[in-house]
Design a protein that fits this description.
By secondary structure, this protein is α/β, with parallel strands linked by helices. The protein has helices spanning 17-29, 49-59, 74-84, 103-112, 129-145, 162-171, 178-185, 208-222, 225-253, 262-294; strands at 3-10, 35-42, 63-67, 89-92, 117-125, 155-161, 189-196. It has two domains: 3-222, Spore Coat Polysaccharide Biosynthesis Protein SpsA, Chain A; 225-294. The chain is built from ten helices and seven strands.
Length: 303
């Protein structure tokens, strides 16, 4: 018999959980024609989130609560939920009430139609312009440089089949993007579209620093562009230096060498050092990720 696992990562969402459960109960759980479980994963919240989660678990026996030992990041929290879920499919649901609960039913219908992956794609979003720009830039970059099958509107909410769940649990990758891993798997996928609502309760903890890390992790983990970029820039600098050396050689033969040229020489040196440091930084990002992977530390710890 089919069973849905609804995984909800929680990070400073104490005021959202009760309205979220009430919304899910009315619009989804009471109309589902199959078994279900809800897995709340506390990702190291410093508020009363876990206390509220345990209260809900006492009300509904279908609720399972997990508490991570510290904040490991949203994708690690989702992976923790996937490692404990028992459903034939799993749905990631945000705790901030910005995604309509009805998406669960719509995605489940697409899943029963034979799709192993169903993505809830943002058709629009009632958020500030800078957030829309950052999201569009991330999506466009991934489509062009890493994952051509990334939806244009991007996605946070998704449904995956048990086979995909098992594959993600086997990967156990760190410093990566769980959404990008799902796209990389390449299973039959369908999309549902929705309007992302403005957050009305609580404050978002999705900081600029976390967004930048996700961008770097996604680009380095699923694209060879950074390494290819170093090669192209290195070749262009080599070509430019050969042309400059030829010009200097010709000037020396024609006795046109003077002591002038300090400005151009310093500009060239500074640019060269800048490119060198940029190249070392990109290689360092790869090396750090390789080192982090070889230590085989778990991507999350359940307390």
């Amino acid at each position: 018999m089919e069973k849905i696992s609804i995984i909800i990562p929680v990070y400073y969402n104490q005021d959202n959980l009760l309205p979220l459960y009430a919304d899910l109960k009315t619009k989804v759980l009471d109309v589902l024609a199959c078994d279900y479980e809800i897995i709340f994963v506390d990702d190291g919240s410093g508020d009363r989130s876990y206390e509220v989660m345990t209260q809900l678990a006492q009300i509904d026996p279908h609720i399972l609560t997990l508490k991570l030992s510290r904040n490991f990041g949203e994708h690690a929290a989702i992976l923790a939920g996937l490692s404990r879920c028992t459903g034939t499919c799993a749905i990631r649901k945000a705790a901030d009430l910005q995604d309509p609960s009805e998406l669960v039913l719509e995605m489940f219908d697409r899943y029963k139609a034979g799709n192993k992956v169903v993505l809830a794609v943002r058709e629009g979003r009632d958020e500030p312009a800078y957030q829309k720009f950052a999201s569009s830039l991330y999506t466009l970059t991934m489509r062009k440089l890493a994952l051509p099958n990334m939806p244009k509107g991007g996605f946070d909410c998704f449904l995956i089949d048990r086979q995909v769940i098992d594959i993600l649990n086997e990967m156990k990758e760190k410093n990566t993007s769980l959404m990008a891993q799902i796209l990389w798997c390449g299973f039959k996928t369908d999309n549902v579209y929705y309007q992302r609502q403005k957050r009305r309760i609580g404050k978002s903890r999705w900081t600029v620093q976390k967004k930048v890390k996700l961008f770097i992790d996604s680009l380095l983990g699923f694209s060879y562009f950074p390494v290819r970029f170093i090669s192209v820039v290195g070749f262009l600098y080599f070509l430019g230096s050969m042309i400059w050396m030829l010009g200097i050689f010709i000037d020396s033969l024609m006795n046109r060498i003077t002591v002038e040229g300090y400005t151009s020489l310093m500009m060239m040196l500074l640019m060269t050092f800048g490119v060198t440091m940029l190249s070392l930084g990109i290689l360092g990002e790869y090396l750090w990720r390789m080192f982090d992977a070889t230590r085989k530390r778990p991507p999350f710890i359940i307390e």
